[in-house]
Automatic annotation (TrEMBL), chains A, B, C, D:
Taxonomic superkingdom: Bacteria
Keywords, ordered alphabetically: Cytoplasm, Schiff base, Thiamine biosynthesis, Transferase
Any one GO BP annotation for this protein: thiamine diphosphate biosynthetic process
Species annotation: Myxacorys almedinensis A
Matching CDD domains: ThiG
Record note on quaternary structure: Homotetramer. Forms heterodimers with either ThiH or ThiS.
Protein name, entry field: Thiazole synthase
Pathway participation: Cofactor biosynthesis; thiamine diphosphate biosynthesis
Pfam family, one: ThiG
Active site location: K116 (schiff-base intermediate with dxp)
UniProt GO cellular component terms: cytoplasm
EC number: 2.8.1.10
């Protein structure tokens, strides 16, 4: 029987590998929507995240809240995941991905070729374009990027992106920032069953229970931003998400009990009262 | 702004008080259904539980798996919660509660007057009898017990038990051992809103995500037994439940984001591409 | 094989029997909350209901919308179900039930001994008191009433009311008028499995799909009032509820396909293309 | 106020228009998986469907259950919807669509240019390929087909198919034949909100309540095959689906009550007891 020590050792071993790079945490977060840099720094620390996504366009244009972002975090400890938020077409996304690679180099991450690919023509739901995303992914893979595409939870699209050489797929649970939770669970489950690359559930998670649920389903990692940054107490929620994603991962490895239609006594009724 | 240190201090302060007694952990577990005593001990350690429930009748009758149970745990560190499992009527439960008090005394817990009250006439679903439970609770309160009644999630019954002087109410999420999760969420929410005594969600939780969900709803504590004891790796699942219940509590205190019908960009699209 | 004609004949045969009285429709409605008597009459006609519940206290006191209610419906065609809405204790409910019987007699229903028993101490959620309800039911059964008690979805309470001689049980799906749908499905399912008297799902249904769902679960009948009376077009919604409750009943009798984890082709792929 | 007669007249007016062709029923069905032709005929009659889909490849190859299918139904009354089931690529689907048009002509539907476009590379979940589907749709629209593409519930893909000139979009609720119901409700809702062509929910519906739910969400039509053909009593289930889809449509037009967190009395408590 496995002892508690063995259990903890196993947990230490359970790393996430993306494009050959090894990470201990399976929780990623972002830099958007925090009220202050200080709150952002505390939240990222509390989350124990190693991967943090940054909107290249916003840094480039020094959009509000992004002036000085490059200096606000210690990039020797955090792996930057540049994203192409704000791009409506494959072409735009490809250009912004290249800018992102330059940005990572300037911050000292010479070998960082990661890009979170977002091709989002829709301003209301911020849902990604499957056609444009596949097109951009194919080009960026050719250019040597490790591509992490943000997609609707479409299992066939996920498989095609994997075949195109993407490093992960990032299906959405529900629209970005909506906090609706995992609305596409059936499709995400199919994606997980069929993927040989990591599946990162991205967008829609609002609570730790939803974070745990995604990990229990077998997701390899999560990206959570709004639910942390906009919580009343952002660092505390970051901590809660860290704990919950660990709990979900551990449960996935621990073999949950089957769901039964009927009850099953914790204390079987074999005894008789003798008083 | 609250710093991470302040956050951790607050967390330390956040204790559960039942009948005047203070507990750090909000997760309770049981002793039933483990494969071995060793696995039980490891799981209870991994769960960091302080309250462990024991079926008085099974100890009394030395039912299988209960011989030597009294010696298997260190009762100087764990608070025993004797339960009346196996009792079908108020009278039976009252008698078994008294036995439980004796048992606690024998194990060195002189001032332990806790009893988890179960009056369960139904062998298939193991659902409690509201009438018999209220009747037994009234009597046991008179006799000085701290009564923690196991009930169906009926808000009016919960209120009547509170008025009768119970120390907590323990509504069930779904039938014992079924692992169906929180099926009565709407009623449990109403119970939580109206209670001035701790609400402990008991029975039905199968996964850490469900544990977190109950705590996010504002439950004061959880009792989880089968989902831990019968998991493929019981100590690892115990740890997962510990992490998840903490995550849910922290989220409850941290103010989750509202659920929105539409998306809300993590990286607002105010920038323009300049490449 | 059953022909369509045989099917329709079977449907004609499928009557609801409560306390020895036979009804063709399995949908009941009420008289509260309509904007006008004319809309009420049209809605009741469109619903094809045979049983309509009336709040005895409101008629007695000529509360707004209840003046003239007795004359507004044709009681030679509709079976009145007097209810004890507004009663907070068993005693009040017993007295109002007796008044209801008188009221039915005055309207020409000499042999109508039905009463919808509501004992509701709670003004916010309008949830029933299990203890008071059982107490009043026992008394009213002794006095010869056909008692239809409104209850929280508690299977043990339902069984005790059946044993006390009630004519039906009426578990709530969710709080009255909330339109939340069937929130207590797991418990209602257990009640249905165990009952030998009709189970009438009462309160909470907001849409035809929820009405159909309850009937598919095997409920014997439904009581729907607010979802009809307060719909933008009440008579049209009444018709929709009629159709949906029939659909659900028919589906219950027709044997639904099992839910499968995987797909199963409608048009199996045994052919090959020959073009 | 609208009278019942006015209501029924409105209902008669509420026709479904696809590619300029008008249909009274909003329920479509198929010919696959029936146990006998007789049962199929009775079920289609009971469903009151006007559009029935047929797998072109299976007719072409005289696959089991498809010999004589052409003669088994009265095609002067039923509009044939040829489908491309069994096609894994855009090219295959285009060829089969052309065969389908010939088949419709042979059966006397000279002007029938409808095709249900299925491009399904996956044998386990039978999920459609978004890229291949768009490609085939663009070609078939050029060739003058009224294209009804079967798609995963991806709002951006749906919009692109609409822009490509498709006659409808047919998002799936859950995998074909799985009977899991509407698992992609959030995405289907977004598709409905944004479409200017009819949205037909296709695949996954297992029960009348799920059929009603899709119509209440505002779907313009449904395609249901397995849930009818494989029900224990297929004609009765067909009837149930007909009733339920009507109920859902009527409810969509009737303005449902809002969902409330709290109760709202059907019989407000303004009266006082006077006994």
């Amino acid at each position: 029987m496995q002892t508690l020590n063995m259990l903890l050792e196993t947990a230490l071993d359970d790393s996430l590998v993306i494009a050959g790079r090894r990470f201990t945490s399976r929780l990623m977060t972002g830099t958007g929507k925090y009220r202050t840099f200080e709150e952002m720094r505390q939240s990222i620390a509390a989350s124990e995240c190693e991967i943090v996504t940054v909107a290249v366009r916003r840094v480039q244009t020094q959009a509000p809240g992004h002036e000085g972002l490059a200096d606000a975090l210690d990039w020797s400890k955090i792996w930057m995941l540049p994203n192409t938020a704000g791009c409506q077409t494959a072409d735009e996304a490809i250009r912004v991905a290249r800018l992102g690679r330059e940005m990572a180099k300037l911050l000292g991450q010479e070998d960082n070729n990661f890009v979170k690919l977002e091709v989002i023509p829709d301003a209301k739901y911020l849902l990604p374009d499957p056609i444009g995303t596949l097109e951009a992914a194919e080009q960026l893979v050719k250019e040597g990027f490790a591509v992490l595409p943000y997609i609707n939870a479409d299992p066939i699209l996920a498989k095609r992106l994997e075949e195109a050489g993407c490093a992960t797929v990032m299906p959405l649970g529900s629209p970005i920032g909506s906090g609706q939770g995992i609305k596409n669970a059936a499709n995400i489950q199919i994606i997980i069953e069929n993927a040989t690359i990591p599946v990162v559930v991205d967008a829609g998670i609002g609570t730790p229970s939803e974070a745990a649920q995604a990990m229990e389903m077998g997701a390899d990692a999560l990206l959570i931003n709004t639910a942390i940054a906009q919580a009343a107490n952002a660092p505390a929620m970051a901590r809660a998400m860290h704990l919950a994603h660990q709990a979900g991962r551990l449960a996935y490895q621990s073999g949950r009990i089957p769901v039964k239609a009927y009850a099953s006594a914790s204390s079987p009724l074999t005894g008789t009262i003798t008083s």
